[in-house]
Amino acid sequence: MLKLAIKSLANRKTSALLTVIAIAVSVALLLAVERVKEQVQANFANTVSGTDLIV
Question: What pTM, to 2 d.p., does this model score?
């Protein structure tokens, strides 16, 4: 079964490469969005921590 998978990948090099690149870009984007979210939350907490809020 493994030999069949390797032969299939060898025959479809471009498709396999594009799939690997797409997965890598997706993971990088998810990590970047998470990093931006954390930075925004930290900046908001720093901004709000110095002010008194009256509701």
Answer: 0.68
pLDDT at 53: 66
What backbone torsions phi and psi does residue 52 show, to the nearest 5 degrees?
A: -95, 125
DSSP 1: -
Can you tell me the distance from the alpha carbon of 54 to that of 41, in angstroms, rounded to the nearest whole number?
A: 21
Q: What pLDDT score does 22 carry? A: 98
User: Helix (H, G, I), strand (E, B), or coil: what is residue 53?
Assistant: coil
Number of neighbours of residue 9 by Cβ within 10 angstroms: 13
Q: Please tell me the distance from the alpha carbon of residue 24 to that of residue 45, in angstroms, as a whole number.
A: 32
Distance CA 45, CA 11 (A): 53
Q: What is the pLDDT of residues 30-49, one digit of tens each?
A: 999 999 999 999 998 888 77
Domains of the chain, residue spans = 22-47
